[in-house]
Amino acid sequence: MTSPVTGFEWDDANREKCRKHGLTLEEIESVFHGTVMVLPDPDHSIGEQRFRAIGKTNIQPAVANRYVFVVFTLRNRNGQTYIRPISARYMHRKEIHRYEKENSNL
Question: Which 8-state DSSP code applies to residue 67?
Fold first, then answer.
């Protein structure tokens, strides 16, 4: 992800898929406003390049700083780049522990 991102692309399909895991659209977007680890997702990149993002929410005190896993793609419209979340969920305790252990030098 080297080009600047203009915003997010939402429609009924990706809104519903992300909400079913208990996250608000604002929480998902907030992950990208903080420190986020982005990795390619070649196993699921059929037809379009997909990415995996791991970061923390930074809004709503009740859920601030919770780790979130987001699968997304980038869409270009009129020369602008948008993040299109495909799926998002809170990470499980074991995943968080593994992530923190693997990234303890950050």
Answer: E
Tell me the residue ranges of DSSP E strands in 10-101: 36-40, 50-56, 67-77, 80-90
Tell me if 14 sits within 8 A of 86, measured CB to CB.
Answer: yes
pTM greater than the 0.90 cutoff: no
The separation between the first and the last C-alpha atoms of the chain, rounded to the nearest angstrom, is: 19
Q: Answer yes or no: are the C-beta atoms of 74 and 81 closer than 8 Å.
A: yes
Question: Block means of pLDDT (10 residues each) for the chain, length 106 residues?
Answer: 82 88 91 89 83 86 80 93 94 85 72
- The Cα–Cα gap between 42 and 48 comes to 10
Task: Identify the pLDDT of residue 106.
Answer: 56
- What are the angstrom distances between the C-alpha of 28 and each of 22, 56, 64? 11, 9, 11
